[in-house]
Amino acid sequence: MYVHGGGSMTYLKDIVPSAQTNINTQLILLDKGRITMEGQNKTCLALAADETAAVHFQLWGEECDAFEPGDIIRLANGIFSYNRNNLVLRAGKRGSIEKVGEFTMAFVETPNMSEIRWVPDPNNSKKYVQEAVISTHSRIFPRLD
């Protein structure tokens, strides 16, 4: 699978926390939390998934109103990192998200990559490794089944 604009697609099960913005993926929004304000910016958390895993996805500003559950979104140059102790996938300053379809996408709700405890790799401090699963599914969004 390739993304328009170059770079190969990353499956959610393969993402790891990083300060770098280079995650290109396609996912479906399953649920969306309420909009809150962080300073001057609107923000809301969504539950998103692909066929390999789920993740908490952070929407900012206009994105909060632009996307709804059921939307299939393509993320370019995304970042998976901590925001207020929550591990979230987001577009960040250099990334972008666009709606590319709706409803017709295979997905799984587990594992949720935001519900895993990550620790620095003892052999490489710039890398994180999975230490433990905090919860098999999202603790923020109730299960769909």
UniProtKB/TrEMBL annotation:
Record keywords: DNA-binding
Any single GO CC term annotated in Swiss-Prot or TrEMBL for this entry: chromosome
GO annotation, biological process: double-strand break repair via homologous recombination; mitotic G2/M transition checkpoint; response to ionizing radiation
A GO MF label: DNA binding
InterPro entries xref list: NA-bd_OB-fold, SOSS-B
Keyword Repeat included in the entry's annotation: no
Keyword DNA-binding: yes
Annotated protein name in UniProt: SOSS complex subunit B
